[in-house]
Amino acid sequence: MTVKELIKNQSGSLVAKAYEFAKKAHAGQKRESGAAYFEHALAVAENVASWKLDESSIAAALLHDVVEDTGVPLENIKKEFGEDIAFLVDGVTKVGKIKYRGVEMQVENLRKMFLALSLDIRVVIIKLADRLHNMQTLDNLQQAKQKRIALETMEIYASLAYRLGMQKLSGELEDLAFPYIYPQEYAWLKKEIKDEYEKREQFAEKIRPIVLGELRKNIIKPLFMDSRAKRYSSLYKKLLRYDMDIKKIHDLVALRIILNTVEDCYATLGIIHKLWPPMPGRFKDYIAMPKPNGYRSLHTTVFCLNKTIIEIQIRTLEMHDEDENGIAAHWAYEQKKGTKQYNENRTSYADKRDLTWVHQLRNWQKEYSNPEDFMNSLKIDFFKDRIFAITPRGEVIDLPYGATPIDFAYQIHSDIGDSCSGARVNGRIASLDYNLHSGDVVEIITQKNKKPSASWLTTVKTAAAKSRIKSALNKKTWSLAAKPEVSHTEFRIVAEDKVGLLKDITGIFSRSHVNIVSVNSGPNARFHVLKIVCETPSKDKIARLAVKIKSLKEVKELNYKLR
Ligand code: MN
Question: Residues 39, 54, 55, 68: which is the catalytic one?
Answer without folding.
Answer: 68
